[in-house]
Amino acid sequence: MISRFTRMGVKYGVEWWILVIGAVVILGVIAMALFAGSIAPYDPHDQNTGPQLAPPSSAHLMGTDNLQRDVFSRIIFGARTILGVAILAAIISSLVGISMGLISGYAGGGFDKALSLIIDSVYSFPGLILAITFAAMLGPGIISITFAVAVIYIPTYFRLVRGQTLTIKEELYVEAARAIGAPGRTILWQYIFPNVIATTVVVFTMNVGDAIMIEAALTYLGLGLPPSVVDWGMDLAMGKKFLPSGHWWLITFPGTMISLLALGFTMLGEGLAEILNPRLLER
Amino acid sequence: MKNLLRYVITRTLLTIPMLFILLTIVFVVVRIMPGDPVSSMLGGHAPQKVIDKKKEELGLNRPLIVQYGSYLLQICRLDLGDSMIFKQKVMDAIGDKLPATIELTFFGMLITLVVGVPLGAYAADKRRSAQDYGIRLYGIVIYCIPVYWLGLMLQMIFGIWLDIFPIAGRTGGHVFASTFEQTGFYVLDTLLMRDFSAFGDVLVHLVLPSVTLGLTLSGIFIRLTRANMLDVLKADYILAAEARGIGHRRVVYKHGLLNAFVPILTMMGLQVALLMAGALLTETTFSWPGIGRLLLERIYQRDYPTIQGVIVIFAIIVALVSLVVDIIYALIDPRVRY
Questions:
Q1: Which partner for A105 in A39, A165, A263, B19 could form a disulfide, CB atoms 3.0-4.6 Å apart?
Q2: Of the candidates A164, A157, A166, A172, which has an alpha carbon nearest to the alpha carbon of residue A195?
Q3: B140: contact with A, CB 8 A cutoff
Q4: Is B21 in CB contact (< 8 Å) with chain A?
Q5: Is A64 helix (H, G, I), strand (E, B) or coil?
Q6: Are A220 and B140 within 8 A, CB to CB?
Q7: Contact A14 B133 (CB under 8 A)
Q8: Which residue in chain A is spatially nearest to B167 when comparing CA positions?
Q9: Could you report the predicted ipTM of this complex, rounded to two decimals?
Q10: CA A157 to CA A99: how far, in whole Å?
């Protein structure tokens, strides 16, 4: 196992270690989210864990907030919200975007042109502002924030998959399948889809990294979630109020976690992109 | 020249459907999404009669298609309607705040270019060296640091601990914008009025917000510059320049970077969306009175006409910037025109 690990490192160089570091960070946060109940020293909602606004100490590793809650416990439980929303949103947008891209690219013609024009227009618009609008219109809640985040990544998958479908559908093996009388649905799902899915893996990973920052941005702006949910972005917004009085721990820890998790997914994506696409190695 | 003109006209005409689609999406999202603007504006328990009256006032009881038509007509007349909360035209509210956003994004972009382009070019020149990996690592890390958190940390370090820079607003308490305000661009206004102490104050207030915004985007520009430079440095004319005995630095940064700059310029157009999103978050973090902060304030107050108006303005800015960038690209690079 170890030798195989290092052999990969020798073969792919720095890119392999970027991938490994990213994966370790992600697994660490996933473990934190899964075992939050047994790791966290306090209940994240407990308003009586110690003194108010206490700096980090052995009793409170990351200090306490203005409501006497333990910041460390809130960080651990908060991993659930951000991971859940970001991953679910990425799944939704990939499912919708990939299907739309496949169908549009395969169907071609006016339908494809019209749909592409619409999607391209959405793609050009700032994603965060789109998400803010959706979140504001839908009102606070886990489902609406997930939906708001999901919407903005549909164009990314659509454009990628449509472009590839256009190329693949001209391939000889697709023509052969058509010649032996395979119906459109079979060609789409058994001949084109498997060839498209590989490239979406990298995009998916990067997408989750980006979705993490968008989720936290929405909750930081106070648009995403009701106050009963434990969330890093919301904790950051609250910490902001105590920044002028120098309570650094309230912003330092949630922000570090958001960046670290986003970095984990981005590094995994970068590593995957380089390793899956050797042509890029020249760079 | 004829080709250029033809290109400009075609490209401008292509902007219209894109803008039309964006405006339609804004309309659909604001009107058809669940949640009734009027009842949420009046509070959940307003009597039906009051709600109906308000709806009639705002024209919300008309069929959707009629509303849609008058919405488009209004925008064509550059009228975005009236605020539901304040006695104020939406256009005026935006006009008040837009210069602040433009000033912030301008200086932010300046810092992005100053940091991103040289570092990217240097990394490409020293490809696969420790410096290259260091710069690329910086690029990835800075990309993953949310702009709002970077802003908060800079506020903490430079505003609170070191106490060098102010952390909120466009001017200090002793400087009154009304004494110099003309265009709304404070850097320009204070210079025009030759009020140099106010000019200094305005610049000092710009430092942290524009550094925050600029650094966040610098990662992307490092990557873009590096990738483009790698392509350019492989070109024959670079080899030819080296062969003629021109100094390496001159070859890389003059012959190379100048040629890599054209694609970088186009990328700049594509980054406008990110710049807008970044500006919105920077504005909220630094209490910067721009249109991003206006949008959020009005979202909290449920002022739908203003929300819609600000998003429309964002859409128009995005469409216009990409149009302008494409035209500049065509001016610089004649190949685009054909």
A1: A165
A2: A164
A3: yes
A4: yes
A5: strand
A6: no
A7: yes
A8: A244
A9: 0.89
A10: 9
User: Which candidate, B143, B219, B299, places its Cα nearest to that of A129?
Assistant: B299
CB atoms within 10 A of CB B291: 27
- The per-residue pLDDT for A28 is 94
For B96, what's the count of Cα atoms within 13 Å in the CB-facing half-sphere? 13
A132 and B32 in contact (C-beta within 8 Å)? no
B288 close to B169: Cβ distance less than 8 angstroms: yes
- Does A220 sit within 8 Å of B148, measured CB to CB? yes
* Distance, CA of B225 to chain centre: 20
Q: What is the pLDDT of residues B34-59, one digit of tens each?
A: 556 676 666 667 777 777 777 777 77
- pLDDT above 70: residue A9: no
Average confidence score pLDDT of chain A: 87
Q: How far apart are CA B285 and CA B301, in angstroms?
A: 19
Q: Do B153 and A251 touch (CB under 8 A)?
A: yes
The DSSP line for A3-59 is HHHHHHHHHHTHHHHHHHHHHHHHHHHHHHHHTHHHH-SS-TT-S-SSSTTPPS-SS
Q: Which amino acid is at B111?
A: I
Provide the token pair at A119: 């999607």
Closest residue, chain B, to A233 (C-alpha): B149
User: How many other CB atoms are there within 10 angstroms of residue B260's CB atom?
Assistant: 26
Do A243 and B160 make contact, defined as CB atoms within 8 angstroms? Answer: yes
* Separation of alpha carbons B306 and A74, rounded Å: 36
Dihedral, A158, A161, A162, A165 alpha carbons, nearest 10: -160
- Summarize pLDDT for A144-160 with one digit per residue, the tens: 899 999 999 999 999 99
* Beta-carbon contacts of residue A41 (< 8 Å; ≥ 6 apart): A61, A70, A72, A73
pLDDT at A280: 47
**Cα A61 to Cα A29: distance, rounded to the nearest angstrom:** 17
* CA nearest to B224, candidates B130, B335, B115, B145: B115
Rounded CA separation A192/A171 (Å): 10
Give the three-class secondary structure for B89: strand
pLDDT in tens, B136-172: 899 999 999 999 999 999 999 998 899 888 888 888 7
- Calculate the dihedral angle through the C-alpha atoms of A252, A254, A258, A263, rounding to the nearest 10 degrees: 40
Tokens of A255: 């922000």
pLDDT (0 to 100) of residue A48:
79
Do B318 and A139 make contact, defined as CB atoms within 8 angstroms? no
| pLDDT beyond 80 at A261 | yes
**Within the 141-170 window of chain B, which residues sit less than 8 Å (CB to CB) from chain A?**
141, 143-146, 148-149, 152-153, 155-156, 160-161, 167
pLDDT at A282: 45
